[in-house]
Amino acid sequence: MSKKTANSESLLLSKKLLEEGYHATSTVNDALTAMEQVEVTDESVSRALAMIIRTHAKLQGSAEGQTWQLHHFIQAAYLKNPRLNWFTVLSKLDQAEFMLYDPVGLQLLIQSWQFVHKDEPFPVQIFLQPWMHVRGQFSVLFCMLYASRELLDMNQTNSRKVIPEDVIPALPVSMRQAASQLASQQLNCLGLLEAILNLAGTMVSDDVRALMDRLASQTPELLMIGLAQIQPIKNELHRTFLPKLLNLFLMGHVNSSLVVRLLWHVQPNLLLEGFFEMYKKDPTSVSRILDIAQEAKIVVHILKTDVPFFTLDLASLAARRQNLNLEKWLMERLAKDGFAFFGSCVDFLEKKCAIEMARQSGANVIPNLQLSMDVIRVFFRILSERPLPPAETAKLAKLSQLYTQLYPQLNEQRPDKPAMSESNVEGERTVFSDEVEEMVGLYFERLYTQDISASRFASVLKACRTSNDQRQVNFFSCTMHTLLDEARFFSQYPENELMATGELLGLLIDQHLISFAQLRVTLKLVLDALKYPVGSKMFNFGMQALVQFRNRLYEWPQYTLLLSKIEGLRGYPVIVESIATTLKQLAQKDPDGKLMGLANANSPQQRHASPPPQQQLSEGSNDTVEKSVEAAPNVTTLLKSSSNQSYETPPDKTQERIAFLINNLSASNTKSKSSELKQILQASTWGWFSHYLVVRRVSIEPNNHELYAGLLDELDLQDLTETVIEETYTNIHLLLQSDSIVHSSSDRNLLKNLGTWLGRLTIAKNKPIRHKDLSLKDLLTSSYEKNQLIVAIPLVCKILQHAAYSKIFKPPNPWLMGNLKVLAELYWTEGLKLNLKFEIELLYRGLEMDLNEIEPTSILASLKPAQASQAHQSPLPPPGIAIDRSTIHSPATSQKSSRALPMEEAPPVVVGNNPLAPTPSASNSSLADFDFTPVLSKLQINPAVGQLMMQHPLIKSTVYSGVSEAFADVVPNIIQTSTNIAAVSTKEMILKDFATEPDEIRLRRAAHAMVQPLACSLTVVSAKEPLCSGIISIISSNLIQQGLPELLAEEIATTIANENTELLCMFIDQIAKTKALEDVDRALAPAYASRIAYRKQQQQMQGGGMQPFFDTLSLNGAPHQIQLPDILRPMHGVSPDQFRLYESFDQRS
Fold first, then answer.
1. Where, by residue number, does the polypeptide cross the bilayer (predicted)?
2. Which of 135, 662, 746, 1078 has most Cβ atoms within 10 angstroms of its Cβ?
């Protein structure tokens, strides 16, 4: 049979199915009938499958929802030919007629495989290998790239990964989350990227280039790392994109450090070439290169490369910033490379000298970084110490003379003192004999090879300190000097050696072996290390030291308070308990807070700043522990909740290991971490673990709830899960009974987080919340009576939001509907705060329910909230329900009742025995929850200020926290007031002008067009000046508290404020716009509903006997007893010219 005949035969099946249409696969019998007198082979079935995928929504009947029944077709095909091989069927899709036009096509393709091979993964390799018909292949690759992970997860295939799973745990903790997110994307499949790249140069090359451009803007990280791993270079497109993407990350990107670190592992030569090219174009870019290399922790590796001028310039800058021991590095390179490296150093110094001489003479020279005096001295000292031929000695002497002429200050005699002056407290360098230094080096070598423990080393030092033998005393002094002098290089130590050093340092502090003069420097060293990201080696070094001397914390009250402010320590129970216990003891010994400087702090600067430990920290108090809550909100709460513990506490090392496992938990390593955790945990310590997980993790880390729930699922210990749930109930009740819950936003945030967690563990998993554990309905009603709805509504909404994931607790579940109806009644209660209404709206929206369609309960009508005479509330029916006009308040009455509930004048609410007054900020809590991080990442920093930030990281944190604090103090109240004014004004105007307009869409468009520019302009004008003043005041006062001169602090603060005012105003504009739309829609909800009801009624009556529309809500505005002339009286809706006036608001803005 000829090839042409064979192709004709294979097309018969697809043609016959196409002629008969969708009903040909309605049943298996119909499909068998269509296959009669047709040969069913792999080829014919493949062509028929291509036709089915191509026409699944194009034939007659598709508009009515008809389509091919793929499973009937496959079942019939196998009945006709049991020898069909579906792998071959998919392989033969390499044909001109095959094409995926939408995601449904890929879904049909995968379903066809799953019907035949239920338990086998989809063979993506078929579509990743070279095809003849590239258009069809490209359509499949495109759909795979953007397919949902539920349909097809490319990370589960056997293809190589761009970011392998085993690489992520080896990354620094600060990079793991970003790496995990990237690794979960479809493009993480290297085979998929390579297949797309192979199509460049074919007939779909334009489509491939467009797709690569799209990927470069969406996921440049994966594209960069993937293209770097595909070697050799495939084609011109590959060659073009590599340097383009590399330049993007070298110039600056949010994930630059992550990409650079991964590139160093997969393609170091490519990264080095990028650095060299960048340096060739602009020698001053060495500063940027050093920043990138330091973030990625690869400086040491780059300095080993054989590119002399570049590495010497980089090493000089690193030494200038005190990130490299230049003397040690030069000696090591000279010992390794000998005279060749000596020549490179001399050439480097000669070129730098020539450039500087030309610059001083006024000539145009290539911009480059100058060498510092200290770096020049180190170069000449090290080079001159080597034995040299006479010619080289003379050359070096001449070069030294030239530098002396350029920089006369090199002639100044300076003592050889360490760069880190703080570590040398006496101010002079102590000289020890070679024998003593050799012995100290030998002991440190034994410590780092684990031949001697840190505790044993400390015992030796303790004995030497009090010895009568001068050599032993010198050994002690030399060890202490070496340890503190090396502190500036700790960040470059390998992790194991650094941990041993931290343990030794902590033991020396604990055993009083460090002198008083050196103690301040040592404690500061530990404190600075603890400010590094959690999980980094410097943070672990600080932890290792702190654990050793935690029993001495009571000696340093202010130092302990500074430790309590460090967020990262909250994941370490032993440290948290030590700090909390210390603060509690200090509170008992020092009830007036004098030891901690808590007695008199009334200046505004002290209220807005974070003063050093020598200064007063906050306003007067009778309880020092309570003051510590402001610095570390959870320390005291943890003490209260665990004071009556009845569970068994595991050993300290077990606690530390569990904290380490939880700290490093991620979606990719949950299985391995859970297996280790299961071995560590004993049934007797489940209570402790539950308390630790709920209080120290869940309550303050809402973003990790899914991770912790996944951990419990992986542990698969039902009793442990029940213990965790019971612990959650316990802490929810603890917070509900707290005296501070009404006026403490931090406590309410804890409560909301616990509510979210409880809903995830119960309702989302179809487990009931028993009445005896927590009655949501009773909680709402009692909170209504006590005026504590600000506590109850967010909690209940957070719990119920998980009903969206439940199979049982969904409408019309009686328990759920009962709670929702109570919330609906609260929603329509007059005087309920906007942020609480918003919580209820979010809940209904998440459950895909319409608040207007739920009939509220009437149980609140019989209840009276506290101080009912001043805070009268009356339930209102939802929009759309007929209202008796006789019950409508007059404008005067409404204004009077609305003035009865201002937050500033609300009566105190009695909880227990403590009168607690609601704070004004409570009404703005919904505004205070916005994410300010994107703005901080885009702050404009003046180069001079940026240089100061690099040299003094404390300035950077002070600036960022100052901007955030000023924004939080100034903006929310102004937005609340401005948007409220704009919404009320818009509502009154709209109701008047649109009283006869029956179209709610036009009503909404006009309202939005008017309220947005009105609210934004008012907000920005009101906020701009106080925000600028607040930023300057807070930043300058904080910087002065940190020890900066007043003039410099004010200059930095003014520069930051002036350069970022416009950026902040743009952000304020966006927030005001969103808030104004919410407010005006909420205000006009009854007007929208009345128009919808009118239209439905009109449709039912088919236009007969209907009166023209008139919105009775408009009667609530201006007095209507005034008779307007006909030309001004609203009738027949709003004309186009009138409507254009509203649309012009946006143009004016």
1. none
2. 662
Helices (H) and strands (E) in the chain, counts: 52, 2
- For residue 950, the SS3 value is helix
d(CA 516, CA 457): 21
Q: Cβ contacts of residue 690 below 8 Å, gap of 6+?
A: 647, 720, 723, 724, 726, 727
Residue 594 has a pLDDT of 42
Cα–Cα dist 608/624, whole Å: 19
Return d(Cα 734, Cα 369) in angstroms, integer: 61
Same fold, 434-549 and 638-862: yes
Task: List the beta bridge partners of residue 909.
Answer: 916
pLDDT at position 417 is 37
Q: Which DSSP string do the residues of 655-678 spell out, in sequence order?
A: HHHHHHHHHT--TTTHHHHHHHHH
**Does 645 or 425 have the greater pLDDT score?**
645
Tokens of 455: 């505790």
pLDDT band at 894 (very low <50, low <70, confident <90, very high): very low
Question: Check: CATH 1.10.3720.10 for 434-549?
Answer: no
Structure tokens at 857: 């309960």
CA dihedral for 576, 577, 582, 584, sign (positive or negative): positive
Tokens of 1043: 């020890």
CATH code that applies to domain 638-862: 1.25.40.180
Domain ranges of the chain: 1-120, 161-263, 274-406, 434-549, 638-862, 932-1138
3-state SS, residue 506: helix
**pLDDT tens digit sequence for 484-529:** 878 877 887 888 888 889 999 999 998 888 876 678 788 888 988 8
The 10s digit of each residue's pLDDT in 391-423 is 888 888 888 888 888 877 776 544 343 333 333
Q: What type of residue is 885?
A: R
pLDDT of residue 886: 31
Alpha helices in 828-904 (DSSP H): 834-846, 891-898
- Cβ neighbour number for residue 175 with a 10 Å cutoff: 20
| Residue 292 confidence (pLDDT) | 86
Sign for the CA dihedral angle at 212, 213, 214, 215 comes to positive
